[in-house]
Write a structure and sequence with these properties.
This protein is 65% helix and 0% strand. It has a single domain, classed as lambda repressor-like DNA-binding domains (434 Repressor (Amino-terminal Domain), Orthogonal Bundle), CATH 1.10.260.40. The model has no long low-confidence stretch (mean pLDDT 84). The protein has six helices and no strands. The chain is globular, with a radius of gyration of 13 Å. It is an all-alpha fold and 85 residues long.
Length: 85
C-alpha cells in the first residue's frame, strides 16, 4: 500500500467539511485562534461563521477570498507578525 502524503489527509478533511470558512481556514493550516486573530475577530465569531450561525460581511468576505486563493500569504502573515499572538 502506498504511503499517504500529508496533503492527502488534508484533502479528505476539506472534502468532508461543508463550511466554506472552515475549508479556507484548514487550507491555510491555521487554528481557529490564529485565524480569528488574523481576521481581527473573536474565536466565537469565527465559530459562528463555521457553524452557519452568522455570515461574514464586507471586508471579512474579501479577506476570506484572498485566504482561499492564497493561503500561503496568511501563513506568512502569521509567521512574520508576532503581535497577533
Amino acid at each position: 500500500m502506498p504511503k499517504a502524503t500529508l496533503s492527502e489527509p488534508l484533502a479528505r478533511a476539506k472534502r468532508a467539511i461543508k463550511s466554506p470558512v472552515t475549508k479556507i481556514r484548514i487550507g491555510a493550516r491555521l487554528s481557529q485562534t490564529k485565524f480569528a486573530a488574523l481576521m481581527g475577530i473573536s474565536v466565537r465569531t469565527l465559530q459562528d461563521w463555521e457553524q452557519g450561525r452568522r455570515s461574514p460581511s464586507g471586508a471579512a468576505k474579501t479577506l476570506l477570498r484572498v485566504a482561499e486563493k492564497h493561503p500561503d500569504v496568511l501563513r506568512e502573515a502569521v509567521k512574520n507578525d508576532r503581535t497577533i499572538f
